[in-house]
Design goal:
single chain, 177 residues, alpha/beta, Rossmann fold, 5 helices, binds flavin mononucleotide
């Protein structure tokens, strides 16, 4: 499989990045893996004009970094979303990417399966509930196969995830795909 990991933390060397790297280390044993830090791309929010539904080639009128992300998504068999929890949601940069998938262009995608990787400062498991629910609804809507989730609470400072057991879980999730 071609596996595309979209990481949504704006800070470099983030807990999200470290978790995604563990997953990628396992997954790359048997698959082609690309990690894309979405904050390296300038992607505007969807403005809801729906003009992509009628425009030639279904291109968005916004000529921004999403063109590169669309190309990567079109090449992916599996999509992994990795994000910090920001006010019980995913990061805004990552949400922009997901909203920009409201386009007929996605008929070119061949994504069949997904996984979810999250980190949060709080140790309460409920901190992930809203994102997990949204993830499950989207997986169901697109008839994706959920390959698994790794949720890591109690990590606040950059790099605090080092040594956590969940890194092994992420590695094995990738390795066992
Ligand atoms: C804008 C913002 C909102 C946050 N909201 C939450 C939250 O709702 N719950 C929580 O547990 N942690 C919250 N955090 C803490 C981050 O989830 C935590 O620091 C995480 O480790 C950041 O991941 P990163 O290292 O990948 O950037 C928030 C942090 C920021 C910057």
């Amino acid at each position: 499989m071609n596996i595309l990991i979209l990481t949504g933390s704006p800070r470099k060397g983030s807990n999200t990045d470290i978790l995604a790297k563990s997953f990628a280390d396992g997954a790359s044993i048997n698959h082609n893996v690309e990690i894309v830090s979405v904050c390296d791309y300038k992607v505007n929010p969807c403005v809801g004009c729906n003009s992509c539904f009628t425009r030639e080639g279904n291109k968005c009128f916004q000529n921004d970094g999403m063109a590169d992300i669309y190309a990567k998504m079109a090449n992916a068999d599996m999509l992994v979303v990795a994000s910090p929890v920001y006010f019980y949601g995913i990061s805004a940069q990552l949400k922009n990417i997901i909203d920009r998938c409201h386009t007929p262009m996605r008929k070119n995608f061949k994504i069949k399966s997904t996984a979810l990787l999250l980190v949060a400062g709080s140790s309460k498991s409920c901190v992930f509930d809203a994102i997990v629910k949204q993830y499950e609804l989207i997986v169901d809507y697109f008839h994706f196969e959920d390959k698994g989730r790794v949720l890591v609470g109690g990590v606040n400072d950059k790099g605090a995830i080092a040594g956590r057991e969940e890194l092994k879980q992420a590695y094995l999730l990738g390795k066992n795909l």
